[in-house]
## 1
Amino acid sequence: MTVHVVADTVTKLSTLRAMLARQHAVTSELLGGASNGCSESDAVVVTADLRVVENIAALKEVFGKLSHVRKRIFLVDQKARLFTVQAYALGATRVLINPVNQADLLAQLADSTVCETGSIDALHGANEAATAGSIAIGSMFSAVLSGKPIEVRHAKDAGSRIADNIAENGLSSWLETVRRHHEGTYQHCLLVTGIAADFGLSLGLAKPDIERLYSAAMFHDIGKAKIPLAVLDKPGRLDAQERALIETHPAAGYEVLKGNSGISFEILDAVRHHHEYLDGSGYPDALCAAGISDIVRILTISDIFAALIEHRHYKPTMPREQAYEIIRSMEGKLERALVAAFREVALNR
Ligand SMILES: [Fe+2]
Ligand SMILES: [Fe+2]
């Protein structure tokens, strides 16, 4: 594999080169300096201080040239949430915290295999749409953390690209690309957006409704920017206190977005209520059936399915059939007719 290394100092550049050179062909680039070639790279590894404005500008330029590279690993200097979301906003597909050990970095690179299924064109299109989506989600999270306005247009455009890609290439290549190349909340939001768009298409919804659906999906978990990563990405079961904290995210998302002129009432409603159930057992408002709109009902099913089939490094990925059975078993909580219609999306599309 050819790995392109980008760093903001000569020392960092040579340390990374030394880590990788035994197993990979390495090209390198000093930020703001010369590049010794990167057009054929299979992966990019970046290490730079993201507090430096010039570094951010230079990285945007670098990634303008490297958008076709599927694996983009960022090494950031502190376990601060803002650096991580900035890395994703710049186009990272994985973020590791310095000091990174060689084995971890090589393992991340080894994971960069080409998918066996689907046509190359479909996967390439899915990869580009996923990158645009991930950058938009990273930018939103970064804006929430730094108290800046959220670029609604950017996120909606990325949602539209995802919906177009799915209409053209189907859901399966989307799920495969996103699960292979994205992680955590980014992976989740990209999966929900794709599944919701495909569910809307399969239901034959009108274009404005599909737009509402994929936009709501892009924004639905924005409140998670307020939840500490230690809780958000905790492997295994959460205790009662952690669960209570996670359950604040729909109302937190609502607070972040309300008053934003680019966000419609329907989207705001979906962000606040995507964890409500028809039997009143959901949160944050314990709504019953009459209070839950169609868009929210569709989004909730898409959200649960996406969470079940997510790829996590610490557990095997659940097959789509098993995830659908779990949704089917949630009798009384989800609309039965929609669950039946979702079968085609879950299993065949
Ligand atoms: Fe959520
Ligand atoms: Fe979610």
## 2
Amino acid sequence: MKTFASSGDLAEKEQRLEVLADGVYALTADGDPNVGAIEGEDFLVCFEAMATPVAASGWLARLREHTSKPIRYLVISHYHAVRVLGASAFGAEVIVTHDNTRALIAERGQQDWESELARMPRLFRDPASIPGLTWPTATFSDRFTIALGGDRGDLVLAYCGRGHTEGDIVAWLPRQKILFAGDLVEAQAALYTGDAFHRDWRGGTLDAVAALGAESLVGGRGAVAHGTQAVAAAIGQTRDFLDTMLARVGTAHAAGGTLKEAFAAAHGALAPRYGRWPIFEHCMPFNVSRLWDELSGIERPVIWTAERDRQVWDQLQD
Ligand SMILES: [Zn+2]
């Protein structure tokens, strides 16, 4: 029997800080959630908050080797706990999310916290340091532009449509052509689609992400994609993963099969290409369960709880 989700993944990952352009930073970690930062003339914008304040303080110490500017904005790409619950460590003046992300935190933030803590305990370094749910202080529906000052250009926060969740946003530097894509794009890491809208994501949402024309892309997990070819490959991999799930789960669903048959078909089709990538086994039961619901006409993802996680896992992994 497989170990539940990522609860058996306890080996520390090596973190790697990359300077992508003057004042643009990405921290990647072998498939753990990526974070970033962008310098304005006299302030900083941080992208993603990690799972706990203690985890975030390690990243901030690395960042402080490069800049001492105060953090004005903390941008959070979506509501998932491992992206948001470290927010208090940043001391940001403004915490920005999409409108839908604020609503999702209100609706299911507490359940998601408990679910993710059990699924990915290693990421929750000192969970007692979390002061509570993170609440945005500024939200938007379409675009939110931050003028960076000097000749640094703008940082454009944009909503590209429903995808990994109902409220994902990307952070785009049009002058530097660098994109922080959050979990809408993964580069050599498996997709988590347990809260997703698969058809929107593989269609108009990824089209909108691709249309930005990024030359460097920081995905939700995995290495930074450098160059237009690598960016296209990361977006293409994300779409292929979704298309394969839609095809295999869709066939089983249309044939009147069972969830378990759909899981076996999707797992079998994806494993040769994606099975060795981070969190593949962890994600697949939750992914197939959500897609099955989506194909059954359940519009919004059912809330994951620590209890429901175990039920779905046990049903599909035995
Ligand atoms: Zn996520």
